[in-house]
Write a structure and sequence with these properties.
The chain is mainly alpha-helical and 65 residues long. The chain contains two helices and no strands. It starts with 9 loop residues before the first helix and ends with a helix. The mean pLDDT is 91.
Length: 65
């Protein structure tokens, strides 16, 4: 049985990416933390790309109906 998945919130993901960028640019952020932040940003970017692909496909499907 699959767990219900929370609806992806694109604007929240972009806001989190902005926060990550600010932390990475902060000279006080440790290298260990930067590694974790970069990993999280890669996850968010992949989710954003998937979301945008699904939106584009739904628009293209609507145009062909």
């Amino acid at each position: 049985m699959n767990m219900p998945t929370e609806k992806f919130d694109y604007s929240k993901a972009v806001a989190e990416l902005d926060q990550i960028a600010a932390k990475v640019e902060n000279p006080e952020t440790s290298l260990d933390d930067i590694g974790t932040l970069v990993k999280r940003s890669k996850e968010l970017i992949a989710q954003c790309r998937q979301y945008l692909r699904s939106v584009r496909e739904s628009i293209e499907d609507a145009e062909t109906d």
